[in-house]
User: What shape does this take?
Amino acid sequence: MEGFDVQRNTNGGVSILCVKGYLDAHTAPELEQAFQKLIDNKEYKIVVNFENLSYISSAGLGVFMGFIEDIRKHGGDIKLTNMQPKIFRVFDLLGFPTLYDILDDENMAIEKFNAS
Assistant: This one.
């Protein structure tokens, strides 16, 4: 069983979460804690980089749904980047591209935040 890891970086006023490994019911609380910490620090411009994520379950997807409303209420957003095709397919099946900006890379997402 592969583990899960989330690293936090910042670029200007944008917070970047790099997720790695398996995001499922067992590991989703780690991502929830990372989001909660950002919200507690009033950091609402968030990019999640999926470059090293190899698996996501519905529990993992639920984390994004659980926080987006609160973040947008504060004028922020969650932008998703660097998805492997199989990860993107899961998001696509559930209609996420209509709810979230899904971009090819992290820099594009940061530029979008800085342009708004």
Q: What stands out?
A: The chain is about 45% helix and 35% strand.
